[in-house]
Write a structure and sequence with these properties.
The complex is a heterotrimer of chains A (319), B (253) and C (664). Chain A is 26% helix and 26% strand. Chain A is an alpha/beta fold. By secondary structure, chain B is an alpha/beta fold. Chain B contains six helices and 13 strands. Chain B has a nine-stranded mixed sheet, sandwiched between helices. Chain B has a two-stranded antiparallel sheet with strand order 2-3. The chains are: A alpha/beta (319), B alpha/beta (253), C mainly alpha (664). Chains in contact: A-B, A-C, B-C. Chains B and C meet through helix 5 of B and helix 17 and helix 21 of C.
């Protein structure tokens, strides 16, 4: 067993995903505790461009066209060999639509212990955020090698950036065999707004009970020169298109102002808004996790607040 | 085609959760268990496939409070065969569950195993992906729609950023379902009651659990006292006034 | 052969053919279908039924709710009865013509006052027919939209012809000098004078031609009857006599036909409901008062009845004559093809249509029966599905924890937990009053008021479950039963006398639908009655006299369903407020749109929400400052509507409790 920390970097369509930097930040702390190195594992064709600012000691790259788009068979094939050989103390995956396809399968195949939904570390203890963010569970990272899936929110992405680590290239063999093959990407419908580029987002969630009330939300967004976005439940209901979805399977956003209306703040949602400058949350539940991430909070029903707020804003405009 | 659906119960987040005296687990006094919502999507997807291409749907679930209701509800929706895993459910983790189910595979001969992509209380990975690892079957998670085309599964997988991809998967396979092609159907209460009369739950003892691969929790706690956010208080007018101030200073107005 | 012999033979043949066709059409299109219907409610209370027959058929009591057409119909109906003797006379005269000329009905045929009455009624009927033609052809009110116009006009012309031919026949006979009752027949005599100069053979020809027209049209009308809306002249007496006398607030039990719950096909209707379909006159009074129809949604109670009737007939014929064409009819779905799914879901179960129908046709009950089947089949909108899921899981539609049910009471003087401590009154708070943020303050005021008068009361805290009124009306009978059983199991362990609630929906189901033995032990009261009683007995004294004008909205489940119109009005009067009624009030109050589970469903493409129409109606009253309501759902509906219509600063929405509080 080595003291090293392995980070399985995530990227898609030539872009590193934010979760990778969060993992690097976590890995840096773990490495301090173990005295090992942070090794970023990058399975890609385009290593140089992607790994420039990784806060890692080594970037170990596997270059192969099979990695062009994420394929869990190809990834797993490499990971299995890498983990067996390197025997790191911890392997970090994103608790994402990519990392979750890998970590559990690997845990079963290599008979290595696995910890999920880890938000942060304290020395060699993990702290997992479960039950929609309402409960934290702490424990020692199991031995010999702990596989970990990490949620965002514990560390800032900047912490995972900054160096230009040396790149170690390794040969990937036998990764052509894919039992699950990408047929095509289904392009999301072209939307009028790209919420990831908006400066002001008025975002609504489950707390909005009636579809008619969406009109008020639209008015508010209009008054603030922003756009309307939503968390999963409202998109599932079909009230808003997927293009407006903020969250793990939607878009990550970074507005100057993020108004979270009736959004409880499940980890899948929060991970996509951490780069907002100001988060202002309105929720009837004073214990809603969203208040942990917001700078300002209001404990009030939307049907009560929205009309009053709109009226005030429209008055201001007139005067 | 045989489809196996794995469902399990998870705490209802509508109820306020609290920690028990040991400090390492949830207090069960007010705990309400519900079928994991992603598992309900998995079940719906299985029933949809049964309706479209014909299949024998078996639902397997570990013993828990309310699991019989969940299984009978599955039967009312159209599941053919119900299995409840009995034993020591208290210590059951996803690794142990995956092993218990892997042991059933030779007898059940499923072509497709569907289960929720995750549960909100997962601490040791996801039972579907673990099962795929144990069986060395292909696995795709975050699936929101499944079709069977020429003895292969064509699934829609979600990637980060809301990107959707169509993926062809060799069978047999395990899929982690995030949403079904259509939302879970409503099943009338009297239909569940009828199912209670007509359907039977086969109980299978899973014997001694092998929980290795899981984790040990030394402390469970609730997030720090709230107040990261500065709470705006007062009557509606006062709150609105403060809000407008903040919006103005943020440059939005 | 002599003419008289020919006449007898033709009349005999015509009668045989007409009555034969009439009977055969009834057998084919009505009788065989009714036989396919399901068992209906038990028939008893014969005295009440007889009384109904007198009041609603003979006195036509409900028709006068639309006054001018009601009066016109009254004369046509009575003209029909009085003049039926002239038809009998004509028939017998024809049949006996071969033996002797000039048959008269024994006794009646020589009774002068009857002749006078018949003469006058011929004129009344004609005037009524002219008015009806005017309404149908020129006014064409919206309530006739979709009704069979040509058929209506044709029948009116039949009646006109029958009347005219009667008068000319009588007139010619007077001119011939053979009518001993001529002095009584003032109208006929006047007509006679118009052509008194003609020869007697011409007079005879006029008499005979009129005779043939008169009898001929009568028989054609008879054959035509079972085919359309005018069949009600036969069925209405049966329909009224055999009407449902159960409490309005009690839905019929869920029926199962061959293991199918509710109504999936038209023959799953109860036979009595089928009779309603044949009784519908397409008058559209139901449509005119329907909140779904008036908000632009695809539901008209009238068209629903008509579509069901057409479908029942075509399906009946198809199953009696199975051929290739029949197969397509037999595979036609009731909901989705014969009816639209949205028609069934848009009903608010407000009972305005049932209330308005002159012939007691039931619309709400069959709609719920159809919903019951749709729910079984899982065909319901996602929002409703979510609400029902929540109700099943948490006992409330809000999807909130039962532990939060009594959160509204925090900070108030403690309220007795009736599960632990007996109390005289059990307050069944209800979902909206418990969970809706809009209602918290009102619910707290209710508790404060109870405490103020020293009422000994308690609540069920987290053990209370939704009473189930609207769950049942949404068609989820199994869930309704489960909720009821859970409530009853809790109630069984409590000691209490009467049950009070502020929610008319809860009130209705507890009062009318919970098991008989429970209901006989515990009187269920709406808070309006309680307030009324306290004010009358002096238990509650108001110190402030409010001196502004208000209007009052009757909740459907308080007013129409349970007849509580006066108590809330007396309470309003006691506060000193001046009550100005809206045009639609009491029995005719317009529904807010929330009932029957509609509050949980997607609203659809409405042109004007019922709640907004109601706010506009209230706001149009001069000097009215507040709309007073007595239902938590009304509070939420009108709070929204007063904002969306922009009347927020002009009209306050006040619960009755708030009004009383203001006057304390």
């Amino acid at each position: 067993m080595s003291a090293n920390i392995l980070v399985v970097a995530e990227h898609l369509h030539g872009q590193v995903l934010d979760i990778t930097y969060v993992m690097l930040a976590g890995a840096r702390r773990l490495a301090k505790a173990t005295g090992g190195k942070v090794i970023a594992l990058l399975l890609s064709e385009n290593v140089q461009a992607l790994s420039q600012n990784f806060n890692a000691d080594i970037v170990r790259s596997y270059n192969h066209p099979a990695f062009e788009d994420f394929s869990n068979d190809a990834y797993l094939h490499v990971l299995e060999g890498e983990v067996k050989e390197e025997q790191p103390r911890v392997v970090l995956f994103g608790h994402t639509t990519i990392g979750m396809d890998l970590a559990s399968v690997l845990s079963a195949r290599l008979d290595l212990p696995l910890v999920s939904q880890v938000q942060r570390f304290e020395a060699l203890n993990f702290i997992s955020q479960i039950c929609g963010g309402k409960i934290l569970a702490e424990g020692a990272l199991p031995e010999p090698t702990a596989l970990v899936t990490m949620t965002p929110g514990g560390y800032k992405t900047e912490e995972g950036q900054g160096q230009n680590p040396p790149i170690e290239t390794k040969q990937a063999a036998g990764v052509e065999k894919k039992r699950a093959r990408l047929v095509r990407f289904i392009e999301p419908p072209i939307s009028d707004v790209d919420i990831s580029k908006e400066a002001v987002l008025v975002s609504v969630g489950r707390g909005l009970q009636n579809q008619e009330d969406l009109a008020m939300v639209e008015r508010l967004a209009h008054a603030l020169h922003g756009a309307v976005s939503a968390s999963r439940p409202l998109v599932d209901k079909g009230w808003l298109p997927t293009s407006r979805l903020v969250g793990k399977s939607g878009k990550a956003v970074r507005p100057k102002l993020y108004l979270a209306l009736g959004i409880s703040g499940a980890p899948e949602h929060v991970e996509a808004i951490t780069n907002s400058e100001i988060i202002l949350a309105v929720n009837t539940d004073p214990n809603a996790p969203i208040f942990d991430f917001a700078q300002y909070g209001v404990e009030m029903d939307l049907t009560e607040l929205l009309p009053a707020l709109l009226e005030k804003l429209e008055q201001e405009k007139v005067s | 085609m045989n489809i196996l659906v794995i469902i399990k119960m998870a705490p209802d987040l509508v109820e306020e959760l609290s920690i028990d005296a040991s400090g390492t687990a949830l207090d069960t006094q007010w705990l309400r268990l519900l079928p994991n919502e992603f598992d309900e999507f998995a079940l719906e997807q299985a029933i949809l496939l049964k309706e479209r291409v014909g299949a024998n749907v078996t639902v397997v679930a570990p013993q828990a409070d309310g699991i019989e209701d969940a299984l009978f509800t599955a039967a009312a929706k159209g599941a053919d065969h119900l299995i409840e895993l009995t034993g020591e459910p208290e210590n059951l983790n996803n690794h142990a569950l995956a092993r218990a189910i892997a042991a059933l595979i030779p007898a059940l001969q499923p072509t497709l195993v569907l289960t929720g992509v995750q549960a909100h209380n997962d601490l040791d990975g996801q039972s579907g992906a673990l099962l795929a690892g144990l069986l060395d079957w292909p696995y795709v998670g975050y699936v929101s729609g499944v079709q069977i085309v020429e003895r292969k599964a064509h699934v829609r997988k979600e990637y980060p950023g809301g990107l959707l991809a169509e993926i062809e998967v060799d069978l047999p396979a395990v899929l982690g379902i995030q949403a079904s092609d259509e939302p879970p159907r409503y099943v009338a209460f009297s239909k569940v009651r009828q199912a209670m009369q007509s359907a039977t739950i086969e109980k299978r003892d899973i014997g001694v659990l092998n929980c290795s691969g899981g984790t040990v929790i030394s402390r469970m706690f609730q997030p720090e006292a709230k107040g990261h956010a500065k709470m705006l208080t007062g009557d509606t007018q006062e709150v609105v006034a403060r809000l407008v101030e903040i919006l103005q200073t943020s440059g939005a107005v | 052969m002599r003419y008289e012999q020919v006449k007898s033979v033709i009349v005999l043949l015509a009668l045989l053919i007409a009555f034969g066709l009439f009977g055969w059409r009834i057998y084919r299109d009505v009788w065989r279908n009714l036989r396919r219907g399901q068992p209906s409610f038990p028939l008893r209370d014969w005295g009440k039924r007889l009384q109904g027959l007198l009041v609603y058929v003979f006195a036509q009591a409900r028709l006068f709710r639309f006054l001018p057409p009601g009066v016109a119909h009254f004369f046509i109906f009575w003209g029909f009865l009085i003049l039926s003797l002239t038809i009998l006379q004509a028939i017998l005269e024809g049949l006996t013509a071969f033996a002797k000329e000039g048959f008269t009905l024994p006794g009646l045929g020589t009774f002068g006052p009857l002749a006078l009455l018949q003469d006058w009624f011929a004129i009344f009927v004609m005037l009524a027919v002219f008015y009806a033609l005017y309404v149908r052809l020129l006014v064409h009110p919206q309530r006739y939209q979709g009704s069979h116009k040509a058929q209506g006009v044709m029948v009116l012309l039949f009646i006109l012809t029958i009347m005219l031919s009667l008068l000319t026949m009588n007139a010619a006979r007077i001119n011939l000098g053979g009518d001993i009752l001529a002095p009584w027949r003032l109208i006929s005599s006047a007509v006679a004078r118009l052509f008194s100069g003609l020869s007697s053979s011409a007079q005879w020809r006029i008499a005979e031609i009129s005779y043939w027209i008169h009898l001929g049209v009568v028989l054609i009308f008879l054959v035509e009857l079972p085919g359309g809306k005018h069949f009600h002249v036969i069925t209405s007496a049966f329909a009224v006599f055999l009407r449902n006398l159960e409490a309005r607030g009690r839905l019929p039990p869920l029926q199962q036909v061959n293991g199918i719950a509710g109504v999936q096909a038209v023959e799953h209707l109860r036979w009595r409901q089928m009779l309603d379909l044949y009784t519908c006159t397409e008058c559209g009074r139901c449509q005119e008062v329907c909140p779904a129809y008036n908000s632009g949604l695809p539901l008209s109670p009238k068209l629903l009845m008509m579509r069901l009737r057409d479908h029942l007939k075509e399906r009946g014929r198809a199953s009696d004559h199975p051929n290739s064409n029949a197969q397509t009819i037999l595979t036609k779905k009731l909901v989705g093809e014969a009816l639209q799914e949205s028609e069934i879901w848009n009903c608010t179960t407000c009972y305005a249509c049932d209330q308005e129908c002159p012939l007691f046709i039931e619309h709400v009950a069959p709609i719920v029966d159809i919903r019951r089947n749709l729910v079984m089949e899982g065909r319901l909108d996602a929002e409703l599905q979510k609400a029902l899921d929540h109700l099943g899981r948490y006992g409330n539609s809000f999807g909130q924890s039962p532990r939060m049910r009594a959160k509204w009471s925090q900070g108030l003087p403690p309220i007795v937990d009736i599960r632990r401590q007996p109390a005289e009154y059990l307050w069944f708070v209800g979902d909206y009053a418990s969970y809706s943020a809009t209602l918290t303050e009102i619910t707290r005021k209710t508790a404060t008021l109870f405490q103020h008068v020293g009422l000994e009361f308690g609540i069920l805290y987290d053990a209370e479950q939704n009473a189930g009124n609207d769950v049942r009306r949404a068609g989820e009978e199994g869930l309704f039963e489960m909720l009821m059983q859970k409530n009853l199991a809790t109630l069984e362990r409590c000691q209490y006398g009467k049950v009070i609630t502020t929610d008319p929906h809860t009130f209705n189901t507890l009062k009318n639908e919970y098991p008989d033995d429970w209901r006989t032990q515990h009187e269920v009261l709406h808070v309006a009655s309680l307030l009324d009683d306290w004010l009358a007995t002096g238990k509650l004294r108001l110190s402030r006299r409010l001196d502004y004008a208000v209007t009052y909205h009757d909740p459907c489940y308080l007013g129409r369903y349970n007849g509580l119109y006066d108590a809330p009005r007396r309470v309003i009067a006691a506060t000193g407020c001046k009550l100005i009624e809206m045009p639609r009030h009491a029995e005719r109050a317009y529904c807010c749109g929330a009932g029957g589970g509609r509050i949980w469903m997607q609203e659809g493409q409405v042109s004007e929400r019922p709640s907004e129409a109601r706010i506009r109606e209230a706001a149009a009253l001069k000097g009215v400052e507040a709309l007073v309501v007595a239902c938590p759902k009304d509070v939420t509906m009108y709070f929204d509507a007063v904002k969306t219509t922009g009347y927020e600063s002009k009209l306050r929405v006040l619960d009755l409790i708030e009004l009383v509080h203001e006057a304390l």
